[in-house]
Amino acid sequence: MRECVVVADASGHIVYVSRAAENLLGYPPDDLLEKHLSTLGLHLGQPRPVRAGEIDPETSERTAPFKRKDGQQISISVASHSLPSASGNGPYFVSILRDATSEWRLKEQLLQSEKMSALGQLVSGVAHDLNNPLTSIMGYAQLLSAQNGDPGFRRALEVISSESMRASRIVKNLLTFARKSPPERMYLGLNGLVLKTLELKVHDFQMNHIALQTDLEPGLPLTLLDFHQIQQVLLNLLNNAEQAMRSQKDAGTVRIVTRNAGIGIQVTIEDDGPGIPRTALQKVFEPFFTTKPIGIGTGLGLAICHGIIAEHGGTICAQNRPEGGARFVIELPILRPAKAPSDGEEVKGSPSPAARAIDVLVVDDDPAIQDMLVAFLTFDGHKVDTATSAEVAMQKVAARRYDLLLTDLRLGGMTGIEFYKHLDKHDRAMAERVVFITGDLVNPETLEFLDSVENSCLSKPFTLDDLRTILHRLDHHVPDQQ
Asked: Residue 372 belongs to what domain range?
């Protein structure tokens, strides 16, 4: 039999073990004889009393973790029942053991997937509720900054705005797996991105006596990158290296190297820690796989890194250094702009000037968002009307014409989607002037709807420049007011 058979007497001492024990448990059968089941961590319960000549018809089966003689952690399925003793000294406890490691891992992955799915749904709702106040905070901070010339006051407002955006990125990171929207890429220099990321880790490395070495090749070509996503990848790899070295010793070294590989740009992060177990090397990018203790790692960090690099058209691989430690090599494609930027220049959006004055209807049931949008648009010289529901908006649209309709997708009563569909059916010209606002870009229904229309969408939290960019994009569709 490929399964292992273990027979114990009524006191729990092993009296028989089949040959399969060596393959399954790592112990030769003779090593197990006369040992108590508990010494192997096999807590199989107690057999019920049976009379001579009968077999316990109730077979119980359970799955339990087991540590083999070589230290490998596996999961075994134990089916057990009682047999009577011919001598009348009590029943024997007969158990059949089989390797259930793959089943256990699949079950754990399924449970973790269900947890992440539930978390995704929870965060989806939380994201909307968080992004509303964040939008208001950022908006008013920008408005106050534009209206006040005091440098110290403006610096404080910039901190408020940047910290609000940071909080928004935390929410977006939680939704990385669920989001289907493309990365927000611009032409960036990889070396600058690396240096800005290292600024976030310098203090931690110093506190943990970790030396940092950099070898950044000058003059690397710019390429299309999402700053925050690539920074997330680098931070994850640096955090992993830090944790690995701290688990083994009180000090260590992290080295980061960038190179122009011709058709791509390489960044290598390596450490002198314990390295990656050989059995885990091929699995480190699998979702929910982790070598960290329970409660320390989720098994999602490297999987997210792999997904982000793949979205950028690149590759990431894990290696063990011959001299000890782990090495991660990322290669990103060089995507050149139609017109190359000047040396050292990073292509970034410049602040947009205010568009010409138009009539705007703001449809939002959140007073703070509505007031902030009114302040934004009025500051730029636009005429603004408001509606707290889609029903009120429909009445106003029927009574007069607007150049632009800004509507939240999640409204009480009739939703923003339903409002748009009503306009599309009865007033196609007005439907084309709708711009959607949402903080829920992870919802599949929202994404499906936005993919089905050509209208623009502002994702919360947004800035004054984001709003101005939308207005300029629509400017040539808005007729001149006579």
From this structure: 359-477
